[in-house]
Design brief:
Elements: E1 7-13, E2 21-28, E3 31-36, H1 41-51, E4 58-64, H2 70-77, E5 82-84, H3 92-105, E6 110-113, H4 122-127, E7 132-136, H5 148-155, E8 159-166, E9 176-183, H6 190-213, E10 217-220, E11 223-226
Parallel strand pairs: 3-4, 3-6, 4-5, 6-7
Antiparallel strand pairs: 1-2, 7-8, 8-9, 10-11
Helix pairs in contact: 1-6
Bound molecules: 5-O-phosphono-beta-D-ribofuranosylamine.
Length: 230
Amino acid sequence: MRLISATSLEFSIGAGDLAAFTVIRDMAKPRIAIMISGRGSNMAALLDAIREGRLDAEAGVVISNIEDAAGLTRARQQGVETLVISHKSRAREEHDREIVAELSRRGVSLVCLAGYMRLLSPHFVRSFENRILNIHPSLLPAFPGIDAQRQALEHGVKITGCTVHIVDEQLDHGPIVMQRAVEVLEGDTVESLTSRILEQEHQIYPLAVSRVLSEGFGVKGRRTFSERES
Ligand code: GRF
């Protein structure tokens, strides 16, 4: 299944005795939205990758459910539109319907959760089926949910890491797009492990988004594939 289609403009040049020929040109980059609740370092990694040309996309909007999320300042400094849509005193689905409407209005083709601390309603997930990504600081399916780094340390694993996955209706569960392993060292604390995993998160999130946006990317059951990579 092809997920994202490029917007193309088709026009013809040439006439007279010469056969007309057609040029097909991509007119628009895929527009992504980034959703945050806090610091936004993964958001910044995505925006940096776009600015530096490593990620061929347009940052359409950054949405936060928290008014004073630190990441919002950084997004604004980079000239990206920001929206605060508070979840306070609202049913989950009503909140999500407003977000979905704003995303649709902006022609967003991919939503990247980056430390967005809310479960998405089925309405949201179905509205952007296979077009919502999340980054999680463990090698899923190990250690879903909060405090994944602490869970890994307390379990005594020797290797953990981070995962970019497609969001489905279950927590930290959908098909995996990319993972990166991180060794747990003797004497690691939650803080030291968290910081080494975060470095890897910042590297793989732009790569994973790029993979999902590339032609030939698809999802089959729990597996993701890229025709061009095989
Ligand atoms: C990251 O560890 C991410 O994996 C998790 O939440 C944290 C967000 O950090 N989902 P930041 O806001 O991107 O700095």
